[in-house]
TrEMBL record:
Belongs to the LysR transcriptional regulatory family. The keyword Transcription applies. This is LysR family transcriptional regulator. It comes from Streptomyces oryzae. PROSITE patterns: HTH_LYSR. Keywords: DNA-binding, Transcription, Transcription regulation. InterPro entries: LysR_HTH_N, LysR_subst-bd, WH-like_DNA-bd_sf, WH_DNA-bd_sf. Pfam families: HTH_1, LysR_substrate. Residues 4-61 form the HTH lysR-type domain.
Amino acid sequence: MRSLEMRELECFLVLAEELHFGRTAERLYVSQSRVSQLLRSLESRIGARLVERTSRRVALTPLGSRFLERLRPAYGLLGEAVDEARAAARCVAGRLRLGFLGSASHLMTAALGLFHARHPRVETDIVEITMADPFGPLRRGEVDAAVVLLPVAEPDLVVGPCFEEQPWTLAVSPRHPLAGRGTLDAEDLADCPLIAAAPPAPGYWRDHQAPPRTPEGRTVARGPAVATLQEGLANAAAGRGAMLLCRPTAEAHARADIVFVPVTGLPPSELAMVRLRGSNSALLDAFARTVESSVHSFRAHPFTAAPSAKPPPSRRAMST
């Protein structure tokens, strides 16, 4: 049997998640032609097609789906074994300062719990970063890595791994005309001003969280510009506008003076870990691996996945 290459397996796993050669190439930091080359090489080793590619779509073959089902947990176990060996060899220790935006998701806290179980000599600081300055704490050296909303198009930052995609909800006052709706379409956003992040957050990033137009091109009015999630919620509760939030954030901030209405027709919300380009370290690499393990576990068992250890003791700091 011809030996398998880890890069080929990694490429197949990412392609199976993205079902898009361009996005796979971006995540692996290679060209699309290199993705095609790695896939062809893997299929040659196996002796059959794993992926069907047409001008309109990319899909796994039945054999590719079965291969993915067996490969994903095995690859995760291999990653864990490598992490444990690296920890023993490098004695991973020190302090990890991790920033988060808005609210720490259940996957982020699960990853922190697993990370602490694997690397008990690492102390963890959890730092809240503001909507108005999502990348500043990284650049100022206040955090080592941050979990922020995509998109991130900053040349000096490296993106990944990514957390799960989530649908949007609209936070409005109970008195708002849309508050009684069971669900909203993206076109309904033209009927209410959207609360948005204030500068210096980049314009493209602010527009993704509060789009200036609906998918059909209707103008969406701008509501108040806010620095923090709590400022945004307070403005929504006061009826000064509506605010788009991902579903987990909405669930974590349920309150009597705000109604959260599901919104369809928008690209999903997604969180990702980011760090400064060139900031590679054993500690950051180990945490990135742990995030990947937690995400893969959740995707395989979305209703049973839970932290494998209690979250680490942390010193919580609030950024200004």
